[in-house]
């Protein structure tokens, strides 16, 4: 609450200096982003996911994978969420597309050869063996990620992705969510043991 009051006060001061309404709205949005926590962002996504699952019983309704792109790549931001008990049951580092950038103001694209991460909900499809070993095809469910399959966006492991959190940014992919081998082994068991397709939600 203190942060909110300070933010409102600061915006009032800026108005007095003749700052444009557009600039003020930008400041308001940035202030909100600082206030909204990881847990609050997860809660927002879970509400939408549970609503979606009610009308899509073919997907796994017990667990979902979440990828919070607001969190820097050196920190845990790939979450395994238990929809039954409403809690995170596992988490790890994940690399994103190099086309999206590395610092603040990331960009996202659904276009071929953009090497960007695409936001939106996916379902995890069949596995195959490729350059990075066993990987899983991703199928986009929204207009923002509808080209995922044709772009060869997959969930895979990579030995250069660290296991432990760090303060520095980690490596990038060509658009795929790419995780550490140890963490991947745990995710792989969940996918392979699931009787229905698991959802992956990438949000910002």
UniProtKB/TrEMBL annotation:
Pfam families: YkuD_2 (PF13645). It comes from the Bacteria. InterPro entries: YkuD_2 (IPR032676). This is L,D-transpeptidase catalytic domain. It comes from Flavobacterium glycines.
